[in-house]
TrEMBL record:
PANTHER family, per database record: HTH-TYPE TRANSCRIPTIONAL REGULATOR RUTR (PTHR30055), TRANSCRIPTIONAL REGULATORY PROTEIN (PTHR30055:SF151)
Keywords in alphabetical order: DNA-binding, Transcription, Transcription regulation
Ranges of residues in domain HTH tetR-type: 20-80
Species classification: Bacteria, Bacillati, Actinomycetota, Actinomycetes, Kitasatosporales
Segments crossing the lipid bilayer: none
Protein name per UniProt: TetR/AcrR family transcriptional regulator
Annotated segments matching region Disordered: 1-21
Organism: Streptomyces laculatispora
Record feature DNA-binding region, as residue ranges: 43-62
Amino acid sequence: MESDTDQPRRSRRERPAKPALSRDGIVATAVGIMRSEGLGKVTMRRLAQELDTGPASLYVYVANTAELHAAILDELLGTLHAADGGDWRERLEGLLTSYTDTLFEHPGLARAALMIRPSGTHYFRLVESLLALLDEGGIPPGQAAWGVDVLLQYATATAAEQATRDQSAHTRAEWDSLTGALRGTSGRTHPHIAGLAAQLVSGTAEQRMSWGIATLINGIRDTPVPAADIPAGGAQI
């Protein structure tokens, strides 16, 4: 009877070939890890393990973890869509809401989005769509250019804040405590808070998001950008 050691060993040429590495394949694998394990697990080492390769081979396609996270965000932005109906304001709000909802689904990515700067195809398409909608609304080009940055900052910060709260086990208790403290404020020491206690915590998250976007749009429309030379390296958005 032959033992296992008597069995002929398979040569490397007989083993199934691993799929060739590519940036698209690396990003797709990273997205899969994030969906199942969270963004915190998306590291070069974990990604290399999933792809059955060494971490060093990944740096040919992705410079570092920050760039990888930016590529993940850009990939998810490919699912965004603006509503077909409504005026330009409604479509712009719908697009930003779709962006925020995408970040809501991935709390780690929502927080990371405050720091990372995607520069892929889907991010550029988002910026182009926002600029087109602001142009449709008659917003002057310079104000639209700066306004896109403000709108995306607001939407990203809103998503990051809400995602962080949703992950906390004490969110409800903390909110009740804040509400109670506001309503119990003395009108003698804090007259404005006491007078507006109910309004300070009123409205749904959706209503506040909508109001915030409308407020920013009005400000972008009515506030000219200062006359300034663009640095040689270009302004950062």
